[in-house]
Amino acid sequence: MNKNYVAGIDIGTTGVKVIIFDAEGNKLSSAYREYPCTFPQSGWVEQDGEMTWAMTCEASNDAIAKSGLDPAAIVAIGLSSQRCTFTPVDRDGMALRTAISWQDSRSFEECDEIAEKVGIERYYEITGLPNGTTWTGSKIMWIKKHQPEIYEKTYKFAQDQERILHKLGAEGYYEDWSNGSLYGLMDIKKFTWDQELLDTLGIDGDKLPELVPSGQVVGEVSQKAASLTGFAPGTKLVSGGGDQQCAGIGTGAIKKGIVEVTVGTAAVTLAYMDGPYYDDSMRLPCSAHGVAGKWETEGLQNAAGSSLKWYRNEFAIPEMELSEETGIDPYDYINEQVADIKPGADGLICIPYFASSAAPNWDPFARGTFIGLTLGHQRPTLARAIMEGVTFETREIVEQMAANGVEIDTIIISGGASKSAVWNQIQADIYGKPVLIPAIEEATSLGAAILAAVGAGLYDSVEAAVDQMVQIAGSYEPDMAIHDRYNRYFTVYKDAYRALADAGVYERLVKLALEE
């Protein structure tokens, strides 16, 4: 009997990864293509959507070639995609402007309008989301206000999930519930676009994609897409999920007690919920899970791995040059240096708001900050401070989840940062809990492949597929003496942000920069 294979395509913020898996979750091959974001103004983050598609085609061809498979053996494709990044497209599927990224914080005035017209309590009640610039809806409002000619010409405001599915061959624009819930326009209890919000905010619902559950067949690879990607014509296209919901599936965070932390470009801390349970403080979202008809609560950090990447690009020039000579990843050199610095980074704290603050503070004006710099600090100390700062922020999210009654028995780490033993240990020490590492680092791609396997009928349910396709490879135990030391740094970390925010320092700086 021929063996079945599935593909998981993860369309991330800074690159696309295509991985071919067998039905037991073993990785046959993978390919990655990097692409940039652009930063036209302070707080603005954009991306060329057509370039994203071109890199998806390249990576797909590469992964299929490396697998040695007949493309026809790949029975289905599932997508994991960066959430909230969207492109206005015309009826022919062509981009009308560059994509606006989820990291973009330009729509703070539109968020004020939402607060005034809808009310932050009512907005949270409908969408499960705190009012903030991350979500797609406020940016659609920005386009309508500042680029009305583009708004009028737009056929669909398409996130990467439905846009790439359409380019692969799906006839319509199908948005899975997990991605749809991050538009900030969906009724989180009904999984439908909310007409009250659309009417109040003046958004045309016909310009939004069709909502469907994750794991549903929505089309098949077209002849044209086959020639561009290397997939066989007729391969099933399955609605996937947001990258973090897919990571939850790909690590097995589909039942109570498991918290999954993905540290990639962003960092997201996710916990499964079997009902739409809200955070009374409205700091953490209640969103749709990639498990159809279930929910998750999560905390988003806009810049996590991208903060360390900024350090690599701007400060680790010697390590980059050495990498060119040796072929060793520059991050390996950075990790070695960080391991030699004691916990607490010699009194240096990083507030990692390099792309403003999402959870738990939802501050569009917040910016990256180093506190405690002295003439005695060397470059690698900044790298350790970044790792610790990102993890402090995750801890604050985890503590808010626990305060909301979420069970937390196990923490699983995924994403690119899970390759760093020193960062994994930092996380265990700051949380004061053991952390588990999955066998497949690329949990987002695996989660998408699991949804593809369910859509193709290889498994009856996501739960059955996870049981067979997800494995744990290792764990890190916390050093409780170091945890106690981190507790004191954690208090300083929180107080430092609060002092700057309450004094209006961040907001004044941002508005001054916009005046220039």
From TrEMBL:
Domain of life (superkingdom): Bacteria
CDD domains hit by this protein: ASKHA_NBD_FGGY_YgcE-like
Keywords: Kinase, Transferase
Residue span, Carbohydrate kinase FGGY C-terminal domain: 262-455
InterPro entries associated with the record: ATPase_NBD, Carb_kinase_FGGY, FGGY_C, FGGY_Carb_Kinase, FGGY_N
UniProt entry tagged with the keyword ATP-binding: no
All residue ranges annotated as the Carbohydrate kinase FGGY N-terminal domain in the record: 5-250
GO annotation terms (biological process): carbohydrate metabolic process
Keyword Cytoplasm part of the UniProt annotation: no
GO function terms (MF aspect): kinase activity
A Pfam family recorded for this sequence: FGGY_C
Family: Belongs to the FGGY kinase family.
Protein name, per record: Xylulokinase
